[in-house]
Amino acid sequence: HVQLVESGGGSIQTGGSLTLSCSASGYTGSGYCMGWFRQAPGKEREGVTIILSGGHTSGDIKMYADSVKGRFTISRDNTKNLLYLQMNSLKPEDSAMYYCATGRLLSFSGDDYDYWGQGTQVTVS
User: DSSP letter string over the chain?
Assistant: First the structure.
């Protein structure tokens, strides 16, 4: 049974940085796509960034939403089953509940992800 647990959220001033972590258990990392999604009150869930690790012979495939390109960085440590989201130059519009998710399809659609964490709140003011 796959479990995902996010951490690292909090309140931060505009322009600040935060690093979110997602601890995964119950599955092997390589070959699975992982992603960070967010949802603000009254808004639809949106894909922020996704990553697919190619294993030892291939590099990671990473994709970012236009709204976070150049500011956010996704990474993963498959040996520790950890997913990270480094967020820099944060803006108030980045405020949302952030979720990590895992699935078998490299996609920005949340419907393509099978397992989700409980989320961690990020508030930028």
Answer: --EEEEE--EEE-TT--EEEEEEEESS-STT-EEEEEEE-TTS--EEEEEEE---SSSPPEEEE-TTTTTTEEEEEETTTTEEEEEE-S--GGG-EEEEEEEESS--S-GGG--EE---EEEEE-
